[in-house]
Amino acid sequence: MQLKGIHHVSAITANAQDNFNFYTTILGMRLVKKTVNQDDTSMYHLFYADEKGSPGTDLTFFEINNAGHTYTGNNSISTTSLRVASGQALAYWQDRFDQYDIVHDGISEQFGRQVLPFQDHEGQRLTLVSDEKNTGVAGGVPWDGNGVKAEKAVIGLGPVHFTIPDLTPTKKVLTEVLGFRHEGSYSLLDGREINVFATGEGGTGAEVHVEVRPGLQKERPGRGSVHHVAFRVEDVEELEAWRDVIRQKRLPNSGIVDRYYFQSLYFREPNGILIELATDGPGFATDENMEALGESLALPPFLADKREEIEANLTPLETNNK
């Protein structure tokens, strides 16, 4: 068994409308699913992705109304990366960020790739990474429906960054449980060393970058923080096999959870990072036509009879996804 790469990253926003406006109007991504948190239906769960909502391209947000400030620190998923096709695309984004007064650090290099670190309106830590030299997991299908041309568009998720106090237990889970391999390391401009782990075909869509900060306080999450990262599993049969492996390693876990659009399993590694394993299918077109993804509130069948109650508890979300 081998994990295929990153499936999705889920983060926290304090306001779904402002979040939608940023990720569609500024970043040009497609809202492919407007639904609710299945564990707390009082909050929206928004999925942004490529044109088809492909696994490995989903950046998702739980709306926690009035979520507090994030105090960044240890035991966290500290940065999420988004892939673009080329260095030329990065230059476009740098100019666009200046135009919209988006906080960014300029273009630099990490692990042999050009990158552009930036923050969204809530301080979410993000990095655009060029796929120009990528030979691993392929990117998704560019979406140009929100004003960003296809050759400049976000085409998927790039490496996720962990910040932890001790490398040993996290490395053990990544390599001995999940089958990642250590690909090398690189240094940031301030000298901090980052260890790189990869799975499957490797490349920008299948890496975890790990920074060790022993003296750093634990992160206090809020708006602009990441809740969990999910890795790709082929199908339910393989997910069941992963469940057995995780049980054998005596890692407390959720068991298999039906999310309707995919099947999932959750567990925490010893440094507290919440990890999900999720199947590639059946996908977001299960209950909506591909052309209409994200245009209305979608509820899985097991919540359908509560639609009236759920909608009454949600603030209307104005979306123009074309």
What would you say this structure looks like, in words?
GO terms for molecular function: dioxygenase activity. This is Ring-cleaving dioxygenase. Keywords: Dioxygenase, Oxidoreductase. The chain is an alpha+beta fold. The protein has a single domain (about 5-310), classed as 2,3-Dihydroxybiphenyl 1,2-Dioxygenase, domain 1 (Roll). It is about 15% helix and about 35% strand. It contains 5 helices and 16 strands. The strands form 2 sheets. It has an 8-stranded mixed sheet with strand order 2-3-4-1-13-16-15-14. An 8-stranded mixed sheet has the order 6-7-8-5-9-12-11-10, with helices on one face. The termini are far apart. The model has no long low-confidence stretch (mean pLDDT about 95).
Tally of alpha and pi helices: 5
The share of residues in extended strands comes to: 25-35%
- Please name the CATH topology: 2,3-Dihydroxybiphenyl 1,2-Dioxygenase, domain 1
Q: Which structural class do you get from the secondary structure elements?
A: alpha+beta
CATH class: Alpha Beta
Shape descriptor reads globular
CATH superfamily: 2,3-Dihydroxybiphenyl 1,2-Dioxygenase, domain 1
* Widest beta sheet: strand line-up: 2-3-4-1-13-16-15-14
N- to C-terminal separation? 39 Å
Summarize the structure.
This is Ring-cleaving dioxygenase. The chain has one domain: 2,3-Dihydroxybiphenyl 1,2-Dioxygenase, domain 1 (Roll). It is built from five helices and 16 strands.
What key phrases describe this protein's structure?
Glyas_Fos-R_dOase_dom, 322 residues, 16 strands, dioxygenase activity, oxidoreductase, dioxygenase, Extradiol_RC_dioxygenase, 5 helices
